Structures are given as structure tokens and as C-alpha cells.
Amino acid sequence: MQDPLADFSPHGFPLSAKELTAYLETHVFPLEALLSAGRHEELAAGIAEVRQDVKARGAWAPMAPRDVGGLGLPLTTQAHLGAILGRSPLGHHAFGAQAPDAANIELLHAFGTPAQKEQYLRGLVAGELRSCFAMTEPGHAGSNPTEMSTIARRDGDGWVLDGSKWFATSAHGADFCVVMAVTNPTGPVYGRASLFIVPCGTPGFRHVRRVSVMGDEGAGYASHSELAFEGCRVSAEHRLGPEGGGFLLAQARLGPGRVHHCMRWVGVAERCYDIMCARLVSRDIGGGKPLASRQLAQAWVAESRVDIDTSRLLVLDAVRQIEAHGTEGARVPIAAIKLHVARALDRVMDRAVQALGALGMTDDTILAYLYRHERAARIYDGPDEVHMTTIARHELRRFGGAK
Amino acid sequence: MQDPLADFSPHGFPLSAKELTAYLETHVFPLEALLSAGRHEELAAGIAEVRQDVKARGAWAPMAPRDVGGLGLPLTTQAHLGAILGRSPLGHHAFGAQAPDAANIELLHAFGTPAQKEQYLRGLVAGELRSCFAMTEPGHAGSNPTEMSTIARRDGDGWVLDGSKWFATSAHGADFCVVMAVTNPTGPVYGRASLFIVPCGTPGFRHVRRVSVMGDEGAGYASHSELAFEGCRVSAEHRLGPEGGGFLLAQARLGPGRVHHCMRWVGVAERCYDIMCARLVSRDIGGGKPLASRQLAQAWVAESRVDIDTSRLLVLDAVRQIEAHGTEGARVPIAAIKLHVARALDRVMDRAVQALGALGMTDDTILAYLYRHERAARIYDGPDEVHMTTIARHELRRFGGAK
Amino acid sequence: MQDPLADFSPHGFPLSAKELTAYLETHVFPLEALLSAGRHEELAAGIAEVRQDVKARGAWAPMAPRDVGGLGLPLTTQAHLGAILGRSPLGHHAFGAQAPDAANIELLHAFGTPAQKEQYLRGLVAGELRSCFAMTEPGHAGSNPTEMSTIARRDGDGWVLDGSKWFATSAHGADFCVVMAVTNPTGPVYGRASLFIVPCGTPGFRHVRRVSVMGDEGAGYASHSELAFEGCRVSAEHRLGPEGGGFLLAQARLGPGRVHHCMRWVGVAERCYDIMCARLVSRDIGGGKPLASRQLAQAWVAESRVDIDTSRLLVLDAVRQIEAHGTEGARVPIAAIKLHVARALDRVMDRAVQALGALGMTDDTILAYLYRHERAARIYDGPDEVHMTTIARHELRRFGGAK
Amino acid sequence: MQDPLADFSPHGFPLSAKELTAYLETHVFPLEALLSAGRHEELAAGIAEVRQDVKARGAWAPMAPRDVGGLGLPLTTQAHLGAILGRSPLGHHAFGAQAPDAANIELLHAFGTPAQKEQYLRGLVAGELRSCFAMTEPGHAGSNPTEMSTIARRDGDGWVLDGSKWFATSAHGADFCVVMAVTNPTGPVYGRASLFIVPCGTPGFRHVRRVSVMGDEGAGYASHSELAFEGCRVSAEHRLGPEGGGFLLAQARLGPGRVHHCMRWVGVAERCYDIMCARLVSRDIGGGKPLASRQLAQAWVAESRVDIDTSRLLVLDAVRQIEAHGTEGARVPIAAIKLHVARALDRVMDRAVQALGALGMTDDTILAYLYRHERAARIYDGPDEVHMTTIARHELRRFGGAK
Fold first, then answer.
1. In 3-state terms, what secondary structure has residue C133?
2. What is the pLDDT of residues B6-15, one digit of tens each?
């Protein structure tokens, strides 16, 4: 995979891989210090400017379908681009490809009514609206649907929502929220919940707080909120997809969503790797020798290279299998990339911190920000442990089953 | 080691292990939220109150010698106490046992002139003065003495210091600084530097910035600063210890200092373990079963128990060897505890974060603060790699030598 | 722990630690090549000669009680000796301290009738008899008592045994066998089985085969057999301990038994460590530099030193807790040493093989023999996984319980 | 990668992937017990019969070029086949694709004179001759060419060889040996040695011993020998390739050779995985529940699946890079597969042994044979450590270099 950028020029995207990488280095990396320093307003202004420029270059919305204003690129190309954009925590945002909007775009595109698409989808793709997704609840295991306590009960021709959510990424300042709520508490387990679009100004919708994560409350796009739904009423037209289809849609959202996460993590890992390598060759350990001359430092490089390359290849193979067998037929590879890439990223980040020593602990580089925030990779969208069980159960069927 | 507190009642300390633990839970844990939220002034006020109470109970300064106002406890007792105080990032501070003051107290006690003791030592032990220690430099490997660029040159009967330091813990608001500077650039490697006491108001002493570490600038006691010495003149009476004795003194300071660090980390690990275990038994995964019923969660508990118990035993054995053979004769066990305990802590913290899931990422518990700040354990006072080399070189002598 | 032999001179044992180590090197190590080459008859003759000499020196049976002919040493001393004897796979055998005889001696001493002691115990301690222990069954999980299928049914005043056992260590050529068999299939789970002494010539007792383990069938002491009991009748006097007491006695046998195993493994690890270190300093990698000058090799040394020292300290602390709280009260430390020491040994052996390279794969050193046979440490007497669950269940009780 | 066999039908090979797998299970797996039991003559007879059958089916020599009697398959296809054949330690041998003959075939094909090809190559491909390769020496690091002590000095128009070699795989009963010897001790480092073809009956060629490896001396194809060259004279026509070209040729031999090794290891890992999974679903742990229901067992499955899939994908990507950039241009990926796949295999084997428990230690399955013999994967053809350094040095050039 040595220099995978050298021979990659994505069809339908106006920049070559090298150009995109250079663009990020020049236009986006300089804004990162504002992020780790919590200077969110300056950051928002800086990013807004870059976004205008990205639109002007025709590189906007590479993950969105063509018919709603995106570039309509194949999933493999999206994956490659994601690994480049992921080199900065601001990369996806700068190009209109950020979570959770990107996944909400997929949802609305696949399941929205014409009216919903008109009202929410176009503005989302255009970057004029911001959205969030509210599934996880503070008191319950995120990965277990039977534990959800947010309820939506029918009220005339509408629905009234009550309950608490948290880790609603980007909810702060969002225009609307896609919420999962139980609509049939006694139905079959995976048919209990439905999705709703709740505009953030709806009475009964309350933004409780930005949850402080690893020392940062963050703001706007880069924050995670706790939300309350207190007798929050929406009309029937606000249900997204069929009644009882909540988990199914969330699952559909998660399949390619995991490809996007994982490829972004490959990008994060590449960035940490670059920071580490640059330090190893420049750090003098005495006698004119760089830290890179030490064998344990060389081991960090080699093991990280292997971690990153196996990650990238495993994701690309998962894309191949999703395209060949569908999301359902590719459950093992999808779980496998979530497991492997998140862990590989964790190892790469840890080696980079160790390689930088005291400097790695400081916010003088972006590494410390990545180290503490991307630890979440092994937790959200199902922790490692859930994915191990998924893989094992499916694999063991070939041998007669786990139970 | 199961419940090591049950049968430990330290001689010469007014609280039993259980009482001390309970005291921390009641008086100190509640202040921690102020720390992770960066509310430093409220925190300072709260801690000041606790310190008064600790003094009133006769529990103040357990790590300091008796003749200067400390409790004069044996090193083993200090180690045990350190593992309890370490359960809170505020524990040592609350009891007048915090780094870097504790180590500076040892230095001044062993090497200070009567005048230095009078002026700096008593106030330090009494908690009326705060100090810092400035050795590491931004451009150079902290563990390599030949790379130091801060210079102190003779000027009449005094010295003029020029150079940069960083990671001077607690320098913000400190009264004086113990600084290492090169006094003989062409001398034998370990005889090139000397230590100086520099009052923080001295002209030419400049507090450049609190270095932002993992998202926190911190303040006061809980911060790490970059300092500049710009033609900073001190009198001959400000040299601490003999000329050229800098590394020797720093080394003497580091030996028992590592015992203190490592036992504090044992305490940090116990705290994370408690947070993890409490979560595992209370977190429902459906069907009335707690997360603790899952075998992978049980593995976290078992492996963490082993990590902590081996850490504690290894430190206690190192104390035994320091007492039997001196710091120099105990170089292997001292390096071994730094290596093993820092890594064990890292593993325990990581498992605890994974066990808490999304909650573990938030600042709703103290875990996230510990996770990101105590990552430094594997870096400062020599990174893992330096200690591995130290152990190997000494051990291999028994077999004929590494080189 | 650096050179723990230096200051250890066991009370009641005629050789100092250094002398014992030297004795093994001179008299026992030279016989090991016969073991790995499968030259069992020559080996038996050589060992017999050493055993005579050990008896002559008054060093025989250091693990056995004094009243039946052993040295009657305290458990801590036994543990220290075990770590020295364990440096050779022949060490315990040479000194009359080998499994499974040592544990059977404990059983007979604690639970045998005077007649049983007379007939079996004295000869066992004296090394005139050899015994085996048959619990594990080929078709069933060794660690689950409810799965045992060997049955002993009453027949007049005697018992008739039917069933299969395997991994009966040293059964080949043994004089008698201690067998666990179900005597009350519907009783309370841990009261279903009893122990029986079955002389190997009893009709219906059949030695099926020596099970080939990692390429070796072995012979005599150094072998593991499959046994069949086919209508095998013994008199009432052959039951060992109370009816239904099988698991209780086996558990009692396993408690200190685990201390013995673990300390033997510490010895195995020290041996591998010595072989590794000797190689690292003598292996030239060019330019007159030894392999030991490479940092990854130094990491092997340091990490192995930590693995061994933490193992030794954890076992000694478990002994302290067994003596303070009894086997039952020390379940966590007993499980912890089984888990930690077996894994630590595995890591040390693996590093040693890697350090020796091609030579490590060959039988030119004893390392390859240890590497493949001591892999069993993580499996027998309960695999790692069982011990992790045991530790977690007990620990979590402090927090409210795992279930 | 879930069931990669399902959609793979290699062009130019008469069996589909499924058919080949089934063929091995039916015809080759049954012979494996003879291998682990050391019944080499019966084994040889059994394999000979299978080889006839394989030839009759037109599946012979899938790794050899077409013009000398092989199937002439592309490297990617060879890699896929290798992963299937590797499921048995006898697979490659049964199909005429075994090391070291396969690599010697490549050497002779690329560098042999017409006479050498006539005399050695055709017979080797046809399976009528057996060869070995002698490079490693007992006293010297195999990976350092400057340390070689076997000398070939000119003697009239021929050469006289003196020196010792070991780990000459399959030398026992071989017809000829390809030997590396120094021909110009003072030349440039990588130009000092040349290759020679030495028929095994040549005076001065001595087969010293089969080296016992992990308890097995082995025999014939499945053995590793120590060889001595004592004034061993060969004519000028026995030099293979140019004078001084020894290392270059060995390197050329090692490039695709590593692909072959690594894909064979993928097959070994798949076999261990299958044995593990079959055991997990069939092993009852009580209450009618299989071992597979335990979460730690599920972790073994998931982590092994990831280990194997990342291994396969990394090798296939290395093939792509070798084809695109040549062996020299693909040094990083070639080193990366050697590092990653050997380690992944090690982990998979270890988990399988643990999953099988006591059974895994026995030779009742082929697992124990694989566990002890394939440990060599991390050692031969350069140990892990050498490959880490190679990767790091090349990677760090992008950042300015390691030195």
C-alpha cells in the first residue's frame, strides 16, 4: 500500500488524490488549532470559507447521490476519498461529507417522502441545513434495541415523543433531528421503534447540554448533546420510513456508514503515522542520530504500517462484498472492519503519542486531540465486543452453530 | 491482594487505610468535577479548606521528614499511603504530598544549605510555598543529559541563566523553581549541569505559557508550563548542591520519586477499577442481566486485578531493595516498576473506558480525565523504552554484557 | 528481584539456593538431552543415580511432611525451592518432589486411613512407589464436575469402577492410581464424586496408551496416559476420604498444588530467560556487536524480567494469603497466580525462542522441549478462561455481584 | 472474505477451489497422522500414490512454469492455490509445489544454463528429483550475508567448497543441493557469494544429521539437515548464475518465495481455525451449551477471522505490487506480509490450542504438529525483527530518512 495516493485518481472527483491531500494540508490543517483550543467561532468562520471554495471547485458533497446535488461517486471511490478527508478532523466537514449529515442524507434519499426530501434533503446536501441523529440513551446499552425508553405515542394524526437521548452528535445548532422512538413496545423486538424527523424548534424538544467529552464540550458540528423530548408533538408527515421500521432503517444507515467511519479512521491513522514518522526522523537523540535509528521506534513504524494497510484493504474488501451480497450478506466483513480498524487506529495513535513523548501529550500538535476523541471508535456504533460476537455467531453457523 | 486495606493500619499516621479511603471519598472526590470542568478557582478554594482540615487531623505531609514538619514515615508506609491518596488526582495535594513539591522537599532536605532550608524548605512542607522543577526542554530528549541547552554562566559571585524549559509541572503560581542548567559544557557528561533555586519573581524569569495538555491548560498546581530564562541572574547562594551535581541530584530525586509515582498510579488504577466494577454490576444488558455477566467483562476485571496486584507487589519489593541496596543498587527494580506500573495503569484505564462505553468518554465521571492525563505515565521520568534498555543492560551484565 | 538467590538460604534444607542451582546445573541439566531425545531408559538410570545422591545429602522430599519422611518445610520455603528445581524439567523428580506424587502425598497425608498411609504414603515419599491421578476425561470439559462420566457403583462392601480417563500424568509404570469417580449421580453437584486408590494391577484397570503430546509419547514419569476402568473392583478400604468428598479433596489438592505449579513455572521461565540472555550476549550480528545490542532484544529481556519478577512476587503473596485466610479465603490470589504465571511463562518462552532463532526451534537446547510442553500451563488445572471468571465473580461481589 | 472459496475457480487449474479443498480432505488429511507419528516410510508410500493421482488429474506442479512441465499459472492464482494446499502440511508436496524445490525451480528456470536445466530442472518439476537449499550456517545470523563462512575457492576450472550449513530443508535423501558459498571474501558485501549446484553424492559432501526440531528429526522431505562441505570439488559448470551473484539470486528467490510461504501460512491458519470452530460448536460445557456460547471463545473466532482475512488480503495486495513494481519496488509489502502473516498465524494457532484444551496438546489432531513446527514462521527467511527494520527504513525515507 506504500504511497497508495500515487496511482489513485478518482473518477468523477475534480482533484487527484495528491491534490486533495495537498489541499487539506494547505487549507484545512491550519484551522485545526482552533478546534483543539476550543475557539469555535473562529473555526466556524474559517471552515465556512473553505466550504465555499470547495463548492467553487466542484468537489462538494462527494458522498451524496447525484440526483440531490452530490457527486454520485461509487462506494469504493467514496471510501478512498474518506481515507484522505479523514486526515483532518475537519476534512469531511470541509467537503460536505460529515457525519451525521451524510448518513441522514442516505436515509432521506432512500426512505424520505417527496415532501421530506424537498424540505430536508436538498438543504442538507447543499450544506444549508445541519442535522443530528438521536438513538443512544443515557441509561441503556446503545446496542440493545429492547432497552430503548424513548416513546412516541399516537396523538390524533400525529405523534408525541417523550424520552432522553444523548451522544446526539452535532445536535448543537442543528436544524432538525432524526430520532428513534418506540412506537409499539410489545411488538416483535426489531419492529418496536420508528424514526421521526423533529425540527429543533418544535415545542417539547429541549437541548439539555453539550456533553463534555474527554475535556471538551465542543460546539456546533463538533459536539455531542443530551436531548430531552418532553411531550414533543410532530405531525404524521414527520415519521421517516414505515412504522416499526426504525431498527431496519438504522441498520441500513449503519452498513455503509461503517465503511465511511472506518475509512475516515484509516485517514486518522495515516495522519498520526505521518506525525510520528516526521518526529522520528527529526528528533535528535544525541550524537546526530535521530530517534528513528532506534529499533523500538522502527517497530512502531512497521507495525503501524501493517495496521493501516490491513485496515484499508479490509475496508475495500468489505465494500466489494457489500456490492456483491448486500449489507445483510456482508455482516461479517462489516463487523470485521468495525472491529479491526478501530483497534488498529487505537494502536497507531498510542504509538504516535509514545513516539512524540511529552510533545505528544500537548495540544501543540493535533495528535492529542485525536488520541482522546478517537478513542470512541472502539465504542460507538457497537463496541468491539458486540462485533466480535456478531462475527463469531455468523462464522460458527458454517460449523453447526454457536447455540 | 484482595482488599489490601483490610489489614493495613499505618504506624505514625492518624487514619487507618479504610478511614483514609473514606475521607477521600467524602471530602476530595466531590471536588474532582471542578478539576475536569476547569473551574480552577472554586477548586483551589475547596482544596484549601480540605488542607486545613487535614492539618487539623495531624495527617499533613506524610511524605516529608519529621525534622522539617512532616510525619517522617518509613518509605513502605509512604508507598501504601500513596496508593490510597492516588485514588483521586487531588489526593496528594489535599494531604501536602504532591509532586513536584514532595521531591523538592527531599532535595532541599538532603542537599540544601541551612539558609536554603530556612527560606524554602519549611514553607514548602507547611504548604505555604509552592515550587516547580524545570529540567525538560522543548527541543531535546528529556532523558539525555548531553542535550541540555539551558546554560548558567558565572557572573561575578552569581550565575546568569539562559534557556527554555517546559513541562515544569505546577510552575503557574509557584513561588520558586528548581532549575537544571549546564555549568560546564565540556565537562564529563554527567557532571555538566548544576541545580539552581530561582524565585519566580527574579528578573529574567518568564512564565511563557501553561502548555495545553490533552485539551487542558489547567491552572496552578494542576498545570504544566513553558518557562524562559533570559539573562536571569541569581546569587551564588541560589545554587542547590555542589557545582556539577545536577544530574546526580536529579537522579537521587528520581529514585524514591519513582516509588511515589508508581504507588500513585496504583491508586489511579484502583480508582478506575472501582469505577469499572461498579458499572459492570449496575449496567443492565437486557433480561435483568448485568454487563458483569459477560465473559469479556469478566476478563477485564481479572486482568485488571492482576495488573494492579502485580504493580503493588513490585513497587513494595522495589522499596525493600532500595532500603537494602540503595538507589544505585536498585536500578533494575526501580526501572522495572516505572515500566510495569505505567503500562499496567494504561491497560486498566483502557479497559475501564471500554467498560463504561459512551459514558467513559464523557466527563460525567473522572475516568476520562484520568485516561487522557495519566497517559503521560509511560512518557515522563523516562519513557518505557529507556527503562527497558536500563533493565536489559544491567541484567545482561550477569551474562557477560550487552556490548 | 535481581538475583533472588543471593540472599536466600532455606531453613531446614541442606543446600543454599546457590548450591542447589549449581547442583542442578552439574548433575541434572546434563540428563535433559536424554529427555528430549526420548531415550527414556538411559534417562531413568541417570535420574535414579541422582536421586540416591540427593537422599545421601539429606535433600530428599522437600515438599513432603516430616512425619512421613519429608523435610517438612514451610510453604514459602517450598515455593522458593520449587522455583529453583523448576529450572529443569527433571528437577522436581530428582529431589522427590514431582507431580503428581507430591500432591498425592498431601492427599494421603491429610485424608488417608492409617492403613492407606502405611501401604501407600511411606513408599511414595521414599520414592519407592510411583502414583498417578486420574480426573480428566476425554469427552468432557475437565473443569466442569457435572460432566464426569466415570462411575463407581457399590458392589457388596466394595466398589466397581467403569469409565475412561486421560491425561493421567505418570500413569505409565505407576504402582497405583488415585481416581475420581461419580458415586452419587443425582446428589448435589459438588458431592457427586469420590476418590479411590486403585493399584495398577487390579483386574479391569487398563493402561490404554500413552497419549502423544506435542510429538512425544514420553515414558514413565514423563508421560500422560489414557486409562480405562472396565468393571474394575476395589474393596471399601480403597476409597480415599469420605464418600462424596471427591471434588472437595481435589480442590484441597489443587490449592497449594497451584502454588507448586506456579513456582515450578517461575523456574522454567528463569531457565528460558538464562538461555535467552546467554544467547543474546554471545550471538554476533556483525561488526563485533552482539544481538544484545539491539533494542528489540533488550525489550525481550526487560519484559521477561518483569514477567518473572511479578510472577514470583504474586505467588509468594498468594502463599501469605493462603496461610492467613486458608485455601478457600485465598481463591482470588490462587486463581490469579494460575492465570498470570502461566501467561507470563508463555510470553517468556516465546521471546526466548525468537531470540535463539533457528537454534530455538531445534532440540540442541532444552528450550524447544519447554516451549511445546509447557504450553499446557495455560490449560491444565483450569484454563485461563476459568480462572478469569473465578477472579471476576469474587471481585465483583464487593460491588454487588456479577449476576 | 467469508468463504473465499465460494467464488474462486482458478483458470488453468483443473479443480475448483471447493474441489481442491475436498480432494485434500479426502486424500491428504488421512495421511497426516503418519507425519506426526513419525511413520515416514508409510507416509512416503501414501504420498507417492496421491502424487500419481494428482498427475493423472492434470493438477501437478501448479507453481512451475509451463515450458518445463508446470501449469504456468499467474502468481495471484498460485497464491490462492497455496492458501488451499497449505491447509495440510502435506498439501504442497502432494501437488508438486513444495519448498524448497519450488523455489529451486524458479532459480534454475531463471538462471540455469541449458545443461543445468536439462540435468536438474525437468526432473525437479516432474517430481523425479528432490533438492535442497543450503544457506544458513550454525554459527552465524542467517540474515547477515557478511557473516557467511562457507568458502568456495577456485581450483583449476572448478571450485572446492568448505564449510558447514544447517536448516537445509529436505536435504535428507535429496538428489542435489543448491549451496551458497563465499567466492570473493573481500568484495563488495552483497557480491561476495555465489551459488553452486552440488549433487549429494559428490565426494566431500556430507549429510551430518537431521536436526531434531521441536522433538522431531523427521525424514526425507519433512526434515532439516546439517551438512558439511569438506574439500568438496565441483566443476565450473556447477556454478548457478554469475560469480558473485549469490545474494542477488537468493533475494530474487525470496521475493515470490515469501508470497508462497505467506499464502501457505494462510492455509495453515484456516485449517487451525476450522479445527477450533468445529471444536467450539461440539464441545459441551454443561447444560447442553457448547463452548462456542462463551464470549471469550467468540472472541477467538472473531479475532482469528480478522487475522486470516487481513493476511490473505495483504498477500494478494503484495502480489499486485510485485507485478506492478517488481520485487525490488515491492520491498515494503513483501516485508509486511512476512511480518504480519507469520504473527497472525502464531496467534491463530495459539487460540486454537487454547480452544481445544488438553486435546490441543495431543497429537490426536494435527494442530499440535502445526503449533510447534510453524512457530518457525516468525524466524526463517528473516525474523520479525529484520522485517520491521526493513519496513521502517523504507517508509522513513519518505520523511527524510532514518539515519
1. strand
2. 556 777 899 9
